[in-house]
Amino acid sequence: MTPAGIKKNIKIIIFLLIFTVALSLLSQDKNEVKAFSYGIKLYNDGLYAMALLQFRNFVKEFTVSPKNEEAFFLTAECYFKLKQYDAAAEAYLNYLVKFPQGEKSPAAQFNIARCFEEKNDFKGAVEALSRLVLVYPGSQLRDDALLKESLILIKTGEFAKAESALSELRDLSARKDFKKKALYHLADLYLKQSKYREADTAVNDLLSLISNEKEKAGVLLIMSRLYIQTGRLAKITDILNKYLSKNEKLPESAELWYMLGISNLYQLKKQEALKCFVKSSELTEKTDLKYKSLKKAGEICFEKGDFVNSEKYLLSAVKYAENSDEKIEAAFLLAESFKAKGQFNKASNLCDSLMTLKNLSDINRKKLLLFSGYFSLKSGEPEKAVKYYSEFIEEFNKDPLVPDILLLTGKIFLNKMNDFDGAGLFFRKVLYQFTINEILPEARYLYGLTMERSERFKEAEINYKKILNEFPCSSWCDSAKSRLDLLKLRPTVEGGNTLFSIADLISSAKGNKSNPAIYYNLAQKSFTTLKDYNSSVKYYKKYLNVSGKNNNQDSVKYLISMAYFNMSVKENKRAYADSAIKNLNRLINNSTVNTVIKQNSLLLSAKIYEKYNREKAFNIYRKYISEYPDNKNEDAYFYLGEYYSQNQKPDSAVYFYTKCVKITKNKVIFARSLFQNIKINYKKREYAVCDSLSGMFLRNLPKSIKLPEVYFYRAVCRLNTGDSNFAEASLNKISREFTNSVWSDSSVWYLANYYFKNKRYAESVNLCKNLLEKVKQSSLKNDLEFNSGKGLSVNKIYRLLGKSYEFLGDNTSAESAYRKIDISKSKSDMKFYYHSLVRIAEKEHRFNEAIYLLQELYDEYRDFKTAARLGRLFFSIKQYDEVKTLVNSSAKHSEADDIKMKLGSDLTTAIRRE
């Protein structure tokens, strides 16, 4: 072949090779496009597992394809859609390694943060978002990253970092919608931290950016929360009324109707509040808002006594409750509504239906069991009540209510079910598991009664006697004595002889009308056994008629007086008392009457006069102890002590009380009255009397269950009479030795105040913190009112804590304490809150903040003190125009002259100069 031919053949071979390669590449390109498109289709159809497999095969097969970048990113997206967050995060990271400057790099970094967030790894999420902001500052996702980062930080409680991120977003974002979001969340964040000034600024900045009514609704919502928390109720009510009059039926207005209802409710405008809550529930589609609105509406109707509407709203609230605790809170109020109408069966059925609820908080589970037991009992189902109370005891065996529930369950067995074994079991649990408790005397008595009814009389007698020995100051001693007296009569009654013997006596009396012994026996048995005092009087009089003159007649006349007295007590008739007095006076004035009978007649007449003529009772008792000084009668000494005590003569009262306690074996009545007198004198602020009575109580009744309260009264008395060392020791004793007593809290509170007044501020701070720790541990949280009844509240503790910190020079801690005061509780709390914060702001030269706070308070109340202080503040920073405006605005309130006088002549001169 010639060289020219060879050359021509080579060209043909090269052409064929190029053509073959071109055909091959064209075929490969078509397969590549087809494979990638198929993966996209699977992804768009939601078949993420298949799409994942397709994209992974794609990057293996087409290693140099321009579609590889997108395929890698979509692989990670598929993992994310399949909720395989670890694999997704790794796939996004692979994308970033292979394509560090890729188009999807910011999105990959953002989605890595999303993976961490889904796994609740908030720290990892924040770090990933921070990296996005740092590495890709020009990305459109930078604003999204800052926003998400701040929201995660708020969720984890890192408010300072969240505030920084939101401030950066607000200041640097070029997008108006993100500026608005930043301001909204900033305002919300400031509100959570009680930074009201900053929150106000954020809300006002936000208002300047909004462009439609829907957006304005969101701003007004956070403004409502701000103004309600800072006490500007009238102002926010006016703002909301104006907005809602124009946008009444906008769905976005539903939450504003709710906030308007809350504002009206705080201002005690309950009818207006009710309309707002109903309107809110009608407009919203949000189940949580429907629940809150309907529950509030039901509460208002319940308080008004409108149970029909209360039930209607509360039933709907139960329907819309999103969780068990919400459902049960509305249901409890609904049950109370049923209870108010006496519909206990309905309430019981409602509680039964709630028993299937799961994930209840402990406090609501406790309430449910107690409510269910109560309503079951009231609806005549004692077995069901026992079931619920038993569940309570088993589930919450360390709850302080357990002894009372055990006692109540025992009562149900005893009185409702006549199950003496069951009753005895529960009463024994009280007696043996709770050795120190105020209900022990009652439990012991009921156990004795149970033994008596089950015919175990010896055990009953033992238990009644234990009450007299172990609880001599208990009110159950009288009941125990009565049962013991009845047990003594038991053999006669059990033998069936009592009624038959009386019948025989009556029959004998008819046959032998002149036999005085028969009438005497009839009268005695009617008096002592049957307690039939009418019949006893009749038979005693017949005895007198047929017996003639004998030594027993005076005794019988005294017994007739006793019967009349018992009838007057039993039937509450003055006529019987007068008859008794008439007979007794004859015996007292008759010189031939036996001395013992005369003494008893004096005491009985005094006893009767105690109810009808206290002065005569007093004179008779005085006569008795003067005529018979050797007869130590506890009733006489006790009554005289009580009389002098109530007439504010402590020395004489203490003298006679002491006489009484020396001779009496049973101190129950003495203790009860003495304790009552302590309380009366404490309330009347007769501290010397109260102190004397307290001392006698502590000396003579060292084992009484009332000791903590008496120690407390005595300590307060000593504080007010100047014996502060004794008072401090007593209060410390109560808080240290009686920690389970409700008086422990009051003692700590009085000690805290005592330390504060004596400039022992650090000790006052520590005690206030201890009390607040109790509040935190309580299920009632910040609504806790201490049980001592002395008006001790959380707000008062924060007041004292703040003042103590302030005197220690710790203004930061003082301000923190003041800001925790709930200003919705009272006008006094609100004014104290503002003036305290203003004082601290002035100390730290934050004059603008002080002025802002005072203006808020002045706008609300227009009171002289605030106006004067605001004027002084304006004057001190030489804002004379503001002072002049303030004086002029106060003129119509008749305060201008007072303000000028308060601020002094310099202010008047300054105003004139202006």
Describe this structure in words.
The model is unreliable at 21-28, 491-501, 779-790, 891-896, 898-907 and 910-914 (pLDDT under 50). The protein contains 48 helices and no strands. It has 914 residues and is an all-alpha fold.
Keywords:
914 residues, mainly alpha, 48 helices, 79% helix, elongated
Shape descriptor reads elongated
Radius of gyration equals: 43 Å
Quaternary class: single chain
β-strand number: 0
Describe the SSE topology.
Elements: H1 3-44, H2 48-61, H3 68-81, H4 85-98, H5 105-118, H6 122-135, H7 141-155, H8 159-172, H9 176-192, H10 196-207, H11 213-229, H12 233-246, H13 254-266, H14 270-283, H15 287-304, H16 307-320, H17 324-340, H18 344-354, H19 362-378, H20 382-395, H21 402-416, H22 420-433, H23 440-453, H24 457-470, H25 476-494, H26 497-511, H27 516-528, H28 533-547, H29 553-571, H30 574-589, H31 595-612, H32 614-627, H33 634-646, H34 650-663, H35 668-683, H36 687-700, H37 707-721, H38 724-737, H39 743-757, H40 761-777, H41 794-808, H42 811-819, H43 827-843, H44 847-861, H45 864-876, H46 880-890, H47 896-903, H48 905-913
Helix pairs in contact: 1-2, 2-3, 3-4, 4-5, 5-6, 5-7, 6-7, 7-8, 7-9, 8-9, 9-10, 9-11, 10-11, 11-12, 11-13, 12-13, 13-14, 14-15, 15-16, 15-17, 16-17, 17-18, 17-19, 18-19, 19-20, 20-21, 21-22, 22-23, 23-24, 23-25, 24-25, 26-27, 27-28, 28-29, 29-30, 29-31, 30-31, 31-32, 32-33, 33-34, ...
